TrEMBL record:
Gene (UniProt): Ctps2
Family stated for the protein in its record: Belongs to the CTP synthase family.
Superkingdom: Eukaryota
Protein name: CTP synthase
Keyword tRNA processing recorded: no
Segments forming domain Glutamine amidotransferase: 310-539
GO CC field: cytoophidium; cytoplasm
Keyword annotations from UniProtKB, A to Z: ATP-binding, Glutamine amidotransferase, Ligase, Nucleotide-binding, Pyrimidine biosynthesis
Domain CTP synthase N-terminal stretches: 2-272
Provenance organism: Sterrhoptilus dennistouni
Annotated signal sequence range: none
GO molecular function, one term: CTP synthase activity
Metabolic or biological pathway: Pyrimidine metabolism; CTP biosynthesis via de novo pathway; CTP from UDP: step 2/2
SUPFAM superfamilies in UniProt: Class I glutamine amidotransferase-like (SSF52317), P-loop containing nucleoside triphosphate hydrolases (SSF52540)
Amino acid sequence: MKYILVTGGVISGIGKGIIASSIGTILKSCGLRVTAIKIDPYINIDAGTFSPYEHGEVFVLNDGGEVDLDLGNYERFLDINLYKDNNITTGKIYQHVINKERHGDYLGKTVQVVPHITDAVQEWVMNQAKVPVDDDKKEPQICVIELGGTIGDIEGMPFVEAFRQFQFKAKRENFCNIHVSLVPQPNATGEQKTKPTQNSVRALRGLGLSPDLIVCRSAKPIEMAVKEKISMFCHVEPEQVIFIHDVSSTYRVPILLEEQGIIKYFKQRLNLPIDDQPSDLLMKWKKMACRYERLLKVCSIALVGKYTKLSDCYASVFKALEHSALAINYKLDLMYIDSTELERSTEAENSVKYHQAWHKLCKADGILVPGGFGIRGTEGKLQAISWARTKKKPFLGVCLGMQLAVVEFARNCLNWKDANSTEFDPGTKNPVVIDMPEHNPGDMGGTMRLGKRRTVFKTENSVLRKLYGDEMFVEERHRHRYEVNPELTHCFEEKGLKFVGHDTEGSRMEIIELENHPYFVGVQFHPEFSSRPMKPSPPYLGLLLAATGTLNAYLQRGCKLSP
């Protein structure tokens, strides 16, 4: 097993996840089996109870793990399926060690950060690195490990110490450290500054790790003189300094790395049994990146949500839309609309914001209402759904978006004016969305319906079934506490809102479709989590096709994309 540790310096959010994913993609293109581990030094057991404004979206895995969004990057880039144990947190490690101590496994020893916590980290990494993540179920050959945060953070120190020890346990030819740093360019001088990188590498060395590669992030391409300066002051060869400037799309990052000789370096440094040239996989990435940059036709989608100030809050939704747009040769114009700004209360408080939000919604080619929790902004989402339904705008509702589509239909088509979800109004007389029987109202963490579940189509006359290739069932990832009330579904079906997909027992509503509408679809699951650059998610693809007026032609071709 070969281990590649990716650390970061100067600032957090520098792009370690994309760098780690891109390195994995390059090595996979050389014919190697690659897995990935993300280490988050926070004390939470997992990411499940975070607000998206803390660390971005919560990504859900097949096994129900609620994890950091970087695991989504790994899955999309490498086309693999990871497990919850591929996300290590301080909370998980300490819980593991404390449970062992309570069990008596340490035989009366004083339990300390060194060696017990650091040993637990190393043991976890070695065990998880062996778990197959590809469809062929073979053991991986390379494990890319991303250490979250920034070198020097107090909460990350036990992990840095664990890898300082681990580099000797694994041996030099099996362990490599890549340090991602920032080269800022102040507007006042326009000069690219190397001092932050020098200080970051010095801090890393002071903790016992020496970088084999220094990946320098910058806004603009870095000059050769800067590369030579970093090489000299950071005690590495010039070819060990890699530059990644801001690019038009993340698909370009693996290509930038490959152009700077990273395959040849890894072959020598880790003694890998590979050719110097990448295979067809990286050529596909190159073609995809070139196609992305040449797109001329634009499709605009309005994303109506409550976490719109930070794009990472809907990272997988954005990627799923982007994959679908690329598949049909359109450039995506994603307009984020804060759902509270569509509400009547905003019109009274700030009429400019209100009218700007409605202007965006009205000019969009399609409307998407993603998942979420809490009552804030729900009335605005209901307004957007009503607009999509009555104006026959293509619409996709995901999780809460589907539940609100049911609420909107009940209020405006069934005339149940107080229809609501028990999440927002526990005393409603028409509870069209209810708590699931297994919902635990006490503990919040890990108590939802999580992970990959089967959805069975109950009719052949379904747009989504055709988009999925006319399969009898699909398996997608879930994350919800509430569900459509199964006792009331017959009232909706009589008026044209069809529940075309159920769970395997037939009691849980999974997919809705509205009759006599170009595309009005709601799904209880989160199809964005399984979307891949070369395999777009069918519900999202359907939204883009409908928004561009090409859905019927696509279905008539037997769900084949035009060349």
